[in-house]
Amino acid sequence: MRFYLDHAATSPLRPAAREAWLAAAEVVGNASSTHGAGQDARRVLEESRERAAAVLGCDPIEVVFTSGGTESINLALHGLWRSRAAEADAIVLPDAEHHATMDTVSALSAEGAAVRAVPVDAVARIDAEAFAAALDGAAVATALVANNEAGTINDAPALARSTAEAGVPLHLDAVAAWGHIPLSFRMLRGEAPPAAGLVAMSVAGHKIGAPVGTGALVVARSARLSPLLHGGSQQRGLRAGTQDVAGAAAFSVALEESAKELEAESVRLLALRERLIAGIRLAVPQAELLGDPVDRVPGNAHVLFPGAVGESLLFLLDMAGVAASTGSACQAGVAEPSHVVLAMGRTEQDARSALRFTLGRTSADADVDAVLAVIADVYARASGPRSASRS
Ligand SMILES: Cc1ncc(COP(=O)(O)O)c(C=O)c1O
Fold this sequence. Notes:
Layout: E1 3-4, H1 15-25, H2 36-56, E2 63-66, H3 69-84, E3 90-94, H4 99-110, E4 114-118, H5 128-133, E5 140-144, H6 156-166, E6 169-173, H7 185-189, E7 197-204, E8 215-219, H8 245-283, E9 288-290, E10 300-304, H9 310-319, E11 322-323, H10 339-343, E12 354-358, H11 365-383
Parallel strand pairs: 1-11, 3-4, 3-5, 5-6, 6-7
Antiparallel strand pairs: 2-8, 7-8, 9-10, 10-12
Helix pairs in contact: 1-8, 2-8, 3-4, 8-11, 9-11
The structure holds pyridoxal-5'-phosphate.
């Protein structure tokens, strides 16, 4: 038996998204072609954009379909920074962002961007005052809505307000939050001035049951953004290239389904998560929950196992059929300490000893039971002088 507790890395494809994906893949035609076949594809695409926009809380024209979180973040940060580079150069960057953001900002710093780091607190929450203080004259600011490792939910409305007041465009990375907490681009944007405040928001399809390779960057109508890809004039000229009609159809269905289920799923996953955390603490009294104990995405349990080697914990759990993560999947396999745990003020040893369990749509009691049945033994073995490891 296999037990999947890594929904934050990627979540299983929803049957309805699969159906919409396959049906739209049968539509012959390039959505940019003017003939009937092209127009058939265009209808499916634009209907998907409208459905996506209704859930995301924006106008259809503000939905730019992308290949997922990494591309959306790259487009937002390159695009916003480049469009403002003549007037301002600084990027406001909180310390515990996803690598897609951190590495994009490093690339921009090689092009001349100045980076203004903003600390997070002991639960990985962005310090909203320090964030506001760093905004003066900045070109662009970025922030996670919820931290993908610690699960902590940031005060996104406050961050958006401070950027609107400072006249700085803000990108929000909603990849780890979308589908887990109620969010609306329009509500977060509020009455911000045309090119400031929240202007761009990233969402990834595969985190909510759409296929890998789907997602969107919501870009406010009034935002100034340079494209990353050059070519055709698709999607307001912001993302050139033949559009993925089937991906858009599947993504819009996954957005709708996850929105419909959000309330009930939050309650269900929270109960499962609390049972998981309580059970781990009972089996391993040294274990400590990281991140905010209350204000976190419902399916996230980020747990520190003091003295254990994270990679060994992962390996031993995998041997028992349990899939978890040491943090962001993009870093798994590279035995680096978690920059998120370090940013929370923990030691390098702690930053190598945390595990992230994430529950989602297909999670059930059996998944929690599977972890609890083995965790004490796994911890003991991963803490020994020659702890088990893949390498
Ligand atoms: C918060 C956050 N941002 C961005 C990404 C990257 O998204 P994608 O895997 O769709 O490229 C992830 C993926 O783990 C994430 O959790």
